[in-house]
Amino acid sequence: MDGVGSFEITLALAVIVGAAFTQGFSGFGYGVVAMAALAFFWPDLERASVMVTMQVLAVCIVLGLLTRREPGSIDWKLVWMLSPGMILGLPFGYRFILHAGSMPVFRAVFGLILMAFSLLGLVRPHFRNPLPALLAPVVGLVSGLISGAISSGGPPLVIYLYSREPDARRAKGTAQALFIVSVLARLVVVQAGARPVSGAMAAAVLVSLPLVAGFTACGHYLSHKTSALTFSRIVYVLIGLAGLMNLLMALGGLG
Description:
mainly alpha
């Protein structure tokens, strides 16, 4: 698949299982966890980000269906407020990865983003006051830029959405609706660009969908039986370590 060997594909399948479970449990994290791990062994980060984007669509659909009957499933007002900025930022973010995806500076930026998100999650897992609605366009734009570049635009959205809910799990449905908008917009940008999705990549993603769907559902059901805060903190630590490793690898490459 686009120059990727069977060993890399096997590792990628292991990564997506963990990433799907993470998003199923917490409502976010697939792109962050998957891209953090894939950056260590996948030879082409741009192609990896496209694969992750396609899988995220399946994750969000599954999780959206699972949360559709829960209280406050989707806040459509927030979806409409955040979506324009996301759609606007995506093409610019994707252009960045096309030109800088294999450069050390990309790993450095990616690592710093992951570390900052991890630190924020560990220090302030819940905001005392909800972030104001006026920030929605800015949050959407930042998320779109990151989604276009590394298919990991969830952190800005999650910080914003989860700050507005006493129980963050109630924001799962809204987050999935926004992720679907982001994913569809990114796929349009990819298909219109110089490196559209190949038949081999589409086939590989289809093969992975049963695993993605199954572990997403497992994570969601477990979230109702386990402390979401404890699990989230574990995820934040792992993301922080992955960010640190990417930063160290980037510094080595710059040297």
